[in-house]
Write a structure and sequence with these properties.
This protein is α/β, with parallel strands linked by helices. Helix content is 42%, strand content 26%. It has one domain (3-155, 174-205, 255-263): Vaccinia Virus protein VP39 (Rossmann fold), CATH 3.40.50.150. The protein is built from twelve helices and eight strands. Strands 1, 2, 3, 4, 5, 6, 7 and 8 form an eight-stranded mixed sheet that branches. Helix 8 runs antiparallel to helix 11 (219-230). The model has no long low-confidence stretch (mean pLDDT 92). Pfam families: Methyltransf_11 (PF08241). Keywords: Methyltransferase, Transferase.
């Protein structure tokens, strides 16, 4: 088994354990980016939409009422089953659930009007292959929305922050691969004829303890993640909006980038 296969197996194990938690997670289910997705895309009734790495199925649930069909994919079968159960409870019957690798999509070229991927791409071992597949399955003039955690483009005082954030995320969640910067994503997108139309960068604020408990496997792991923040340099803690009370981390922030692209 090569390194990429090992990572994907780890992703399946990690998300299989917590599938139902991602369906009900307020952070994932109630994000302000979901209504913004509809506002940016202006979905049409005849569209076929692909939701890559659907997770708890929140993007599919948001777009299904506006489109002919949504195909929701995920690498993890248990996650797909949890999403399907939630969609059936909502009586959303135009969502098809398909197990699929985001880097090897099992669809013909130029099949979809829209492709979305939300808060998942930092788990993909080969982002270039992922973007190449997105462009392939999109129809000409089709739209792609990526929403994901990012690190700052490295320059000046930000040079060390990206490495810290990725090490910090990997310590909490072994299935984490790497958050890219917006600049790195744009290079990959331009290479595959995906032109940026609109973008937004925002800070997401989390209560630290529920956030770390969602993926940590032990009390020791939780403490190690917290200590990493407590011992970080001042400029890193400032950038991440870390708040501390009585020697314990209370809250912190993560950068989230949302971008709308159009296929040339």
């Amino acid at each position: 088994m090569n390194r990429e296969e090992e990572i994907k197996k780890q992703v399946q194990e990690q998300f299989g354990k917590h599938a139902k938690a991602y369906v009900t997670s307020v952070t994932h289910a109630k994000g302000e980016d979901l209504p913004l997705l509809v506002e940016w895309l202006k979905p049409q009734a005849d569209w076929r939409v692909l939701d890559v790495a659907t997770g708890g199925g929140h993007v599919a649930k948001t777009l299904a009422p506006h489109c002919r069909q949504v195909v929701a994919t995920d690498l993890t079968v248990l996650m797909l089953e949890a999403a399907r159960e939630a969609h059936l409870e909502e009586k959303l019957e135009n969502i098809l659930h398909v197990q699929a690798d985001a880097e090897k999509l099992p669809f013909l070229s130029e099949t979809f009007d829209v492709v979305c991927c939300r808060i998942a791409a930092h788990h993909f071992p080969n982002p270039a292959a992922f973007i190449r597949e997105i462009s392939r399955v999109l129809r000409p003039n089709g739209q792609f929305v990526l929403i994901d955690n990012v690190v700052p483009d490295e320059s000046g005082e930000f040079a060390s922050i990206g490495d810290f954030i990725n090490q910090f995320e990997a310590l909490r969640d072994p299935s984490h691969v790497r958050c890219l910067s917006p600049g790195e994503w744009k290079v990959l997108m331009e290479r595959e004829a995906l032109e940026v139309q609109q973008e937004r960068l925002r800070k997401k604020r989390f209560q630290f303890l529920p956030w770390v408990k969602r993926t940590a496997q032990s009390q020791e792991q939780q403490e190690a993640v917290e200590q990493m923040l407590l011992q970080a340099d001042d400029h890193i803690r400032s950038y991440m909006g870390v708040s501390i009370a009585d020697g314990r981390v209370q809250e912190h922030e993560i950068d989230e980038w949302m971008v709308l692209c159009k296929k040339r």
